User: Which sequence fits this backbone?
């Protein structure tokens, strides 16, 4: 459902996609999920109505804490996950998308 919202947002705001992976076909778990943070300075995670922001340049959370933010209940990287420059956005939050992608 949130992936459909994301696709709708991207289309409405004419945001181009450089590459896309289907999370159902290509699952990303554990250390591979942590590797999505390579060259990322800011992490934004939508959890319900709450947005968690982690400044990865300033804060150095332990891998277990990062995995708790990145992974869903199946142990896979949560979808949708988008990267814009040096920011990674996990989950859908329209206000965050507008601020970072708009």
Assistant:
């Amino acid at each position: 459902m949130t992936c459909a919202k994301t696709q709708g947002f991207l289309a409405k705001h004419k945001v181009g996609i450089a590459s896309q992976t289907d999370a159902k076909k290509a699952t990303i778990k554990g250390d591979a999920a942590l590797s999505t943070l390579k060259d990322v300075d800011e992490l934004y995670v939508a959890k319900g109505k709450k947005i968690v922001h982690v400044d990865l340049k300033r804060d150095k959370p332990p891998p277990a804490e990062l995995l708790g933010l990145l992974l869903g209940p199946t142990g896979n990287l949560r979808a949708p996950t988008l990267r814009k420059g040096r920011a990674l956005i996990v989950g859908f939050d329209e206000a965050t998308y507008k601020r970072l992608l708009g």
About this structure: Residues 2-101 form one domain. The chain has one domain: 2-101. The chain has a mean pLDDT of 92. Residues 42 and 87 are 5 Å apart (CA to CA).
